[in-house]
Amino acid sequence: MTTGNIIAIVAAFVIGCVIAWVISHLILRTRRESLIHEAENEAEVIKQKKLLEVKEKFLHLKADLEKQVSARNSKIQSVETKLKQRELNLNQHQEDLQRRNAEIDTIKENLAAQQEVVDKKKQDLEKLHQKEVEQLETLSGLSAAEAKEHLIESLKDEAKAEATSYINEIMEEAKMTANKDAKKIIIQSIQRVATETAIENSITVFHIDSDEIKGRIIGREGRNIRALEAATGIEIVVDDTPEAIVLSGFDPVRREIARLALHQLVQDGRIHPARIEEVVQKVKKQVEDEVVETGKRTAIDLGVHGLHPELIRLIGKMKYRSSYGQNLLQHARETANLCAVMASELGLNPKKARRAGLLHDIGKVPDDEPELPHALLGMKLCEKFKEKPEICNAVGAHHDEVEMQTLLAPIVQVCDAISGARPGARREIVEAYIKRLNDLEQVAMSYPGVVKTYAIQAGRELRVIVGADKIDDKETENLSTEIAKKIQDEMTYPGQVKITVIRETRAVSYAK
């Protein structure tokens, strides 16, 4: 290959490269221009879209603003309307006040004129009254002061009689209204509590199978019976009563120990002084355990928890005590149940009321016998064994020895009276009962004008017969109130006493 050919080939290659570069440059330029054109078109489209969106948002905002402005304008319009109406009302009120002030001024002027007329007439009346007083003094022979004193005395007696009648009417009305709910609560409490009436005597009868055992109990030369009496402190009466031995003593615990000891000795058959002392010691331990068990069982039955062991033991001792023939433990249980029922009726805590009712007579069974009323002694025992203050106060105040501080105290007092004063609950010594009835009659007989007195219904009603020529009807009402007050202040009695004063007018003639 020649040099010329090589140069021609190189030149052709160079020319081809140049042509290719020019062609590619033109193609790229054309594509760039087309891309720029497309981008411009797309930008124009996006621009138009954005403009449309902005216009639409603007229109929405404009509509919302127009609504808000319209609502605000309506509110402003309504407020303006109310203000105008209020202004009209104020103007009307102002006109009414002005008119009333004018009327008041007119009335004041009329009153002033009438007051002048009244003052003038008052002066005329005073002059006329003075003349009449002078004439009356001349006619009656009494001065004005003396006549006034006589009038005051007569008015005082009349007012006293009317006041007594009015007081009695108010008391009757108060009893009918104020006691209605109280009677309902007490009746419901009594109806909801069922209890037994247990009356114990100062003797216990021990039954035996045959009279042959009496000789063995007495023993040779009375050794056995003397040993038994010395060990128990109970008098043992062996007489001709068939199949019975009488145990006599004031202490129910000792009588129970003697009864149980006799029972074991008779069953065992070995009756001699050494055996008697051994059995009595065992029975004493059994009775002490039974006292504690009775106290625990009573507390559990009533739902009273957390009692001190010593209080539980004292509660158990109540089983062997009686008050006016009423078993003390039964009385305490009955009072506790009544207190719980009444407290629940009154919306109070029935558990606290039951606890206070159970402990209210705990001062009747102490181990020692201090010179204190049983209510105060019971309060001290409760304080000693960490009972709550309201329980201690209820125990101490149920006979009014201390002041009542909570509502538990009157509840315990009322329920104690319900349990102790109900018919059949307690026995009263005949002499004391008769003396109380005589005292009731004597209190009424001490008043002037009383002819006869009768105490009836076991001393719960006192009928007083007065002379018709000595006391009038007004004084009769006053007399019943005075007798009731004197009995209340001077006498002690269960429940309440009704005083009925009877004034009877009789006209007697004879046909001959």
Q: What can you tell me about this protein's structure?
A:
With 512 residues, the protein is mainly alpha-helical. 69% of the residues lie in helices and 7% in strands. It is built from 14 helices and 8 strands. Mean pLDDT is 80; it is low at 195-200 and 423-429.
Keywords:
single chain; 14 helices; 69% helix; mainly alpha; three-stranded mixed beta sheet; three-stranded antiparallel beta sheet; 512 residues
Give the termini distance in whole angstroms: 207 Å
The order of strands across the largest sheet is: 1-3-2
Please identify the structural class as seen in this structure.
mainly alpha
Shape descriptor: flat
User: What is the radius of gyration?
Assistant: 55 Å
Give average pLDDT, whole number. 80
Q: With helices defined by DSSP (H or I, 4 residues minimum), what is the helix count?
A: 14
**Largest sheet: number of strands, sense, barrel closure:** 3 strands, antiparallel
Content of β-strand: 5-15%
Strand and helix order = HHEHHEEHHHEEHHHHHHEEHE
Look at the structure and give the CATH class of the domain at 193-302: Alpha Beta
Concise structural overview:
The protein is mostly helical.
How do the helices and strands line up, and which of them pair or pack?
Layout: H1 3-140, H2 144-192, E1 203-207, H3 212-218, H4 223-232, E2 235-237, E3 244-248, H5 252-268, H6 273-302, H7 309-317, E4 322-323, E5 326-327, H8 328-345, H9 350-359, H10 374-384, H11 389-396, H12 408-421, H13 430-445, E6 450-456, E7 461-466, H14 473-490, E8 498-503
Parallel strand pairs: 7-8
Antiparallel strand pairs: 1-3, 2-3, 4-5, 6-7
